[in-house]
């Protein structure tokens, strides 16, 4: 497996410890944070709550969310072997994916790809559609996660995250419509 594109740390730049906010970087570029990261069941279960992206991620014409979810799951799976389940609620708007229903459909495809179970799609009062599910640590799901992660890393290695702001306006509009 290739080196991660996204580095994950805890507050202050130290190694990430379960239960801390998860800070995500692409090199020196801060991408955002997952906070809170809830640990339960004696450290066997982790739940990702809210991802707060920086303007770099918000301005990126490509959907960085799948890469960040895959990187976060892979980090937990590789560095925290006691964790057997990672659950999440995904609802952050993704303008490049169309209306809320299309965004939910794209999210379902992202999480199904890595073996997520108990996938639920619910409308929130805010008008967002929340996709939730649980990724169970097992050999099959780990292989699926690693394959999806490598494909997403390859897409973002060609043009770095945050590079989109310097792309011509017509290309950014075209990518948002896809």
Give a description of the structure:
The relative contact order is 0.16. α2 (65-79) crosses α4. A hairpin with a 5-residue loop joins β8 (117-123) and β9. A 5-stranded mixed β-sheet has the order 4-5-7-9-8, with helices on one face. The protein has a 4-stranded antiparallel β-sheet with strand order 1-2-3-6. The protein has a single domain (7-177), classed as Aminopeptidase, CATH 3.40.630.30. It is built from 5 helices and 9 strands. By secondary structure, it is of the alpha+beta class. The model has no long low-confidence stretch (mean pLDDT 89).
Features:
single chain; 178 residues; Aminopeptidase; 5-stranded mixed β-sheet; 4-stranded antiparallel β-sheet; 9 strands
Could you give a short description of this structure?
It is built from five helices and nine strands, in the order E-E-E-E-E-E-H-H-E-H-E-E-H-H.
List the helices and strands and how they pair.
Layout: E1 7-9, E2 22-26, E3 29-34, E4 37-40, E5 45-48, E6 51-53, H1 55-59, H2 65-79, E7 85-90, H3 100-113, E8 117-123, E9 129-136, H4 139-158, H5 169-177
Parallel strand pairs: 5-7
Antiparallel strand pairs: 1-2, 2-3, 3-6, 4-5, 7-9, 8-9
Helix pairs in contact: 2-4
């Amino acid at each position: 497996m290739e080196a991660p594109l996204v580095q994950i740390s805890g507050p202050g730049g130290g190694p990430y410890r379960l239960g801390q906010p998860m800070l995500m970087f692409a090199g020196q570029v801060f991408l955002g944070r997952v906070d809170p990261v809830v640990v339960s069941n004696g450290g066997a279960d982790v739940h990702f709550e809210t991802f707060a992206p920086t303007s770099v991620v918000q301005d990126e014409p490509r959907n960085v969310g799948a890469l960040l979810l895959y990187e976060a799951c892979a980090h937990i799976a590789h560095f925290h072997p006691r964790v057997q389940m990672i659950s999440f609620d995904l609802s952050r708007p993704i303008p490049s994916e169309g209306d809320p229903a299309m965004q939910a459909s794209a999210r379902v495809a992202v999480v199904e790809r890595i073996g997520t179970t108990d996938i639920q799609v619910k409308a929130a009062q805010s008008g967002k559609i929340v996709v939730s599910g649980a990724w169970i640590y097992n050999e099959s799901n780990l292989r699926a996660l690693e394959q999806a992660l490598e494909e997403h890393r390859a897409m973002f290695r060609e043009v770095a995250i945050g590079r989109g702001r310097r792309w011509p306006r017509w290309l950014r509009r075209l990518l948002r419509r896809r």
